[in-house]
Amino acid sequence: xxxxxxxxxxxxxxxxxxxxxxxxxxxxxxxxxxxxxxxxxxxxxxxxxxxxxxxxxxxxxxxxxxxxxxxxxxxxxxxxxxxxxxxxxxxxxxxxxxxxxxxxxxxxxxxxxxxxxxxxxxxxxxxxxxxxxxxxxxxxxxxxxxxxxxxxxxxxxxxxxxxxxxxxxxxxxxxxxxxxxxxxxxxxxxxxxxxxxxxxxxxxxxxxxxxxxxxxxxxxxxxxxxxxxxxxxxxxxxxxxxxxxxxxxxxxxxxxxxxxxxxxxxxxxxxxxxxxxxxxxxxxxxxxxxxxxxxxxxxxxxxxxxxxxxxxxxxxxxxxxxxxxxxxxxxxxxxxxxxxxxxxxxxxxxxxxxxxxxxxxxxxxx
Length: 366
Fold this sequence. Notes:
Elements: E1 2-7, E2 10-16, E3 23-26, E4 33-36, E5 47-53, H1 55-65, E6 69-76, H2 80-91, E7 100-101, E8 109-114, E9 121-125, E10 146-149, H3 155-158, H4 160-169, E11 173-176, H5 180-193, E12 199-203, H6 204-218, H7 235-239, E13 241-242, E14 247-248, H8 250-260, E15 264-268, E16 274-277, E17 281-285, H9 298-311, H10 316-330, H11 343-352, E18 360-363
Parallel strand pairs: 1-6, 1-10, 2-8, 6-7, 10-11, 11-12, 12-15
Antiparallel strand pairs: 2-5, 3-4, 8-9, 13-14, 15-16, 16-17, 17-18
Helix pairs in contact: 1-9, 5-6, 9-10, 10-11
C-alpha cells in the first residue's frame, strides 16, 4: 500500500504540570474546561520535552509503522526545526522526496501545557504549514493508493481542491481530516468536493460546525435510529449534533452526509468511542479504558489507522477497532507518536481487547 500524507509538520514542546500547581475550572453550562495559571508566577514543571508532530507527520509515521510505503508532502522553513522534522521522517522510514522548504516562514511549532486529565492546552504557531501551494503538488507525488490530507489552513487550505482533484485523477483513495478552522472558513469548498472524497474524518465538535450548512441544504430533520428492546444508545446518538443555532438528530446528520457523497463519514467522540457512516448504516465502536498521559495526537492516530485499514480492504467495523486500539495506545504517552503501534502490536492488542471492542451497527432509514 503506497500512501501520501499531506498537511502539517510541527515541533512540539510539551510541559507537564502537576495538577496541584495549576487550577482547573469547568463550566457548568457548556462542555468546556479551562486551565488557570497565576500571572507572574514561575510554575514548576514535572517535565519539559520536545518532539516532532503535526497532523501529516503523525499520520505518516502511523502508517509507516503499520508497514505502508509512505511519503510526506509538507512544507518546512529553512531552519533547525526543519532539519529535526526531516531527520525524524527518515528515521521512521517515511519518504522525504516531496518535502518542500520555504524561507518565507519558520517551521511550525507548538507549546502544550499538560495537566489534570492531560487534555493539553496548545499554543500553535503554524508558520510554513500555511504556505503550501499548487506549485508544490507534483503530479508524480499522487501515484499512490491512498492520499491522506490532514488539517490545512490559510494558503494551504486554498490548495485543498487541487489536492483532491489530483488525487482522484490518479485514481487514489482520498481521505481527509479537516480541522475546525478549515470547516468554518472554507466549508463551502469542502462541501463541493465531498462526492470526490472516500473518507471524511471529523470529531463531534467539528461535526457541529458542519450542521448549519447541512440544515441549509436538507433541513434539520428528525430521523431516528431503531434500537433493540433494552438497548442503551451511546451518548452522541442521544444528543445529536448542534452548532448552537441549529440542531440535527444523529440519524439526520448521517443521512445528510450520505446525500453529500463521501463513501465513509467518521465521527469520533473522544473516550466515548467512534462512528462510521456508510450509505446503508452507522457502525459504532466504544473507546478503550486506558490511563491517559496526553490526548494530543490521538485523533491523528485514529484517523490515519482507520483510513489505512479501510483502504487495505478491512470492513468498517474492523477498521474502527484497529483505530480505537492505536489511539488508545497513543494517549498513554505525552507526545503524539511514542504510542503508535506496528502491525503486529496492533493485531495483538486488538485481539486482546476483543471483548471491549464490540461493534454495534444500526441501519439508516431509507
